[in-house]
Amino acid sequence: MSQPALLTGLVLVPLLAALAAVAAPAGARRPIAVAASIAWPWLLIPLGGGVVRGDELSLAFGGWAPPLGIGWRLDALGLVLMSVHAVVGIAALPSAWQRFAPGAPDAVAFWPLWLILTAGINLALLAADLFNLYVALELTTLAAVALIASEDSIAALTAAMRYLLLAVAGSLMYVLGVGLVYAETGSLAMGTAVASGTAAFGNTALALMLTGLMVKAAIFPLHVWLPGAYRNAPGPVAAVLSAVVGKVALVAMWRVWFEAAVDPPAALATLLGGIGAVAIGYGALMAYVEPRLQAVIAWSSVSQFGFLLLLLPLAGTMAFQGAGFHLLTHGLAKAAMFLAAANIVVVLGSDTVRHLPGLDKRMPIEAFTLALAGVTLIGLPPSGGFTGKWMLLNAAWDQQGWFWLILIALSGLVSAAYVFRILALTCFHPARRAVHALHARPPMATSLAALLLALAAVMIGLYPHPVLDLLGQGVPGGGAGASP
Amino acid sequence: MSAQLLVDMLLGTLLAGLAGAVAFGRHLFRSIVFYVAFGLAMAVVWARLGAPDLALADAAIGAGLTGALMLVAFRRLVEIDPERAEDEGTRPTGAAAWIAVAVAVLVAALVAIVGLTALSIEPAPLPAGVLVMNALDETGLGNPITAVLLVFRGFDTLIEMVVLLTALVAARVVTSDAPHRSFTLVAEFDLPLVRTLVAVVVPLAVLVALHLLWVGADDPGGAFQAGSVLAGAGVALMLSGTLVPTARSRAPMRLAAVAGVAALSVLLVVPMPDGRPPLAFLGRGSLLFAEAAMMVSIAVTLSLLFAGAPGLRRGLQ
Amino acid sequence: MSAAILVFAAAAIFGIGAYGLLISRHVMRKLLALNLMLSAVFLLLIVVPAPIGGQPDPVPQALVLTGIVIAVSTTAFALALMVRLFGKQGHASIPSDLDPRVWRGRWRNSRDGPDPERNGAGAASGDKP
């Protein structure tokens, strides 16, 4: 198959499967969704080969070249995050399969929405057009909100509503920014869009788009929807949300920053880096004081997303490799933790940290998963988390950004604080006091899937070079702020 | 001051005033009604700006269907608990309220400055819009907006149809076990006039929808306007009790809901061996086919969203 | 039609919507406010780019048309979600982010102890399975 056809397939396979699932009788929806979720990642193999070779993987719909038509592009960053999406999506299937069996509440709607979310994520990663990106993000958000609401509690419904309202507010800012870009340049294609603009006006449009995307990426202080949404969502949904959905908006931020802006002002870069710094600290603090495991994991995302903002002030190949690698390992580790936490909730009936002592005896696989993923979150060598932070540290050292250097070094400590709080309670607590009636243990496949994700997050730190090389060739925009 | 300018200022003031009535109104019901009026005023502004496609869309979708959806949602709240349907709890007061005012004034000033600056900058030499006009002949269409929606930026439209379908599936998540009642003006107020009106309005709406669909290729109109007019007919049929919501969805209904996306994906995206999508060489017939499928999907989806139920069936008259 | 007047109108609508969004606690009011703001954005999208042949640029017109349909879809789902939330918790509001009480409550919830959000509106029923 030709490369454009393969690219189209990344969106069209899950999308057409979603249509089939909507039209099919209730019983057929789960197999359709599972088949499509396993099928589409295979398209990444030939495409990935192309990206590694350095091919220009792009597509203009209907043969209408941008700016007249819509362009798509698969670059190294898109390939990395899409691979995370593929892996996490498959790893979440056992858990989703069990939870949303035919006859379970919301199983009818869950599977089509799962596929629509998949299509939306892939589209958002492919779109090289500012408005096509908007439509993709709207689709992703709507499906994600509905999937959160499938956990039918007041907390989940409130969280879903808060997410939806904030996301709509964010996207209207983004659209306003896009409108200004069009008014000025007459184009919606990334890369050409802001290039000819006057500085002040272009920066206003840039700021509007970035603010809108920050809401969707849950960047402090616009993160308020995230903790409630992640902790109340069903386990498999929380895994995909934390591993991919937030990061899609973040990648969009990077793209808008590096590809759409001619020369983003240094002050804005420093400001965004500073926001990242505050996010790292604040998220870690909240993770440290939260009483529920899932909430700890959710707040940890707020903290870890802060790192990804450091790319903007540190712009450069090495920082890009670091941030991209962090995206990968954090996605795998976070998904592993949410899947493990979902199992813990099923068995213990609660995930309040007070119930964790003794978990290593009762649910050893889950405890081990949490420990492995925790090691990656802290960034201990030789885990994958270490590699990402190490590259960022190197970038800060190269540019003599001492503030960023100290920040990244200290951030390991604050992550360690909340991770060790959980691990200490789980494995080393002297008083094995909490004794609960065990609920039915979920199938072993769900535990193993989480464990494999956590293992992957650690192991990739041992063989980081293929991914680092890939990211090394694909600095977004190829120019702009990305000086070596 | 010319009469033109006076009319413009009046329209601008009317828009802002209606927006204020929506936001500051004491009663939620009245705010919704003002919102519908706001949507109609927007339609007038679009028409005056020379954008009749938007005028039609905003009147039918923005004002009409959004308003209908809001009114029926409000009604459901009243059905569940009339005491608390409008209950807001306590609004922020004191410092928090002043912060809100300050933020509002600030963003309004910012938007005004940005907008005025945007008006004063040098326009792009060759915007996509001009490219569209130049390439319009290649598409064989007379309406540039239809050309953008279905030919040049067709993938946006495809995803927009998916968003609409997603809303329907998503609404299913939150209504799956909620009791739903049919609500008919006829049953409640026993108004014979309603049935007569519906008997006239519905065929008229179908004719208008088909007309909008047919002329959409060259003149203002198209699948969205036609679909929403048709959905309006669906709403009228529900209000008169001719159609009633059911708890089970049926296959034909589900197929109708996905038809638009399916037709668009096949005609627009699936690449032929030469790399061009079928729509590019099949011409107007295929375009009309895609638009007809979209119209049906839009009408069915919006009607089901209004009904708040997975299916519809003929009511017992 | 004078573009500057419409820019001012859009700015006023945007500001009014922003106020309504911040101050309201009823979800439907927030939705109305967001829809107002969105209309203001659409107005700017059409008014600001240079007209082509005396008519608004067709590309932004198509974008706005897409935006209108996305808006009605999102609103429809949000309304269904609101009705569900109302049925479950007895009121259709979510806490305003401007309200200092919310921040205090959030801080209280963050400390160890039964999670009030989990068990619904502060019911002190503990978290035993």
Task: Describe the protein.
- Chain A has 484 residues and is mainly α.
- Chain A is built from 21 helices and two strands.
- A two-stranded antiparallel ribbon of chain A has the order 1-2.
- In chain A, helix 6 runs parallel beside helix 11.
- Chain A is globular.
- With 317 residues, chain B is mainly α.
- Chain B is built from 13 helices and two strands.
- A two-stranded antiparallel ribbon of chain B has the order 1-2.
- In chain B, helix 2 runs antiparallel to helix 3, helix 7 runs antiparallel to helix 11 and helix 10 runs parallel beside helix 13.
- The N and C termini of chain B lie far apart (59 Å).
- Chain C is mainly alpha-helical and 129 residues long.
- Helices cover 66% and strands 0% of the residues of chain C.
- Chain C contains four helices and no strands.
- Chain C is elongated, with a radius of gyration of 21 Å.
- The C terminus of chain C is likely disordered.
Largest sheet of chain B: 2 strands, antiparallel
Instruction: Detail the poorly predicted runs of chain B.
Output: none
- Along the chain, the helix and strand elements of chain B come as HHHHHHHHHHEHHHE
Secondary-structure-based class of chain B equals mainly alpha
Beta-strand percentage range of chain A: under 5%
Could you give the order of strands across the largest sheet of chain B? 1-2
Number of strands of chain A: 2
**What gap, in angstroms, lies between the N and C termini of chain A?**
36 Å
Provide mean pLDDT of chain B, rounded: 86
Q: Which bin fits the share of residues in helices of chain B?
A: over 70%
The greatest interface here is:
B-C, 100 and 83 residues
| Count of discrete alpha- or pi-helical segments spanning 4 or more residues of chain A | 21
- Low-pLDDT sequence parts of chain A: 479-484
What proportion of the residues of chain B form beta strands (DSSP E)? under 5%
* Total of helices of chain B: 13
The largest sheet of chain A is: 2 strands, antiparallel
Give the oligomeric state of the chains in this entry, treating copies of one chain as homo and distinct chains as hetero.
Answer: heterotrimer
Number of strands of chain B: 2
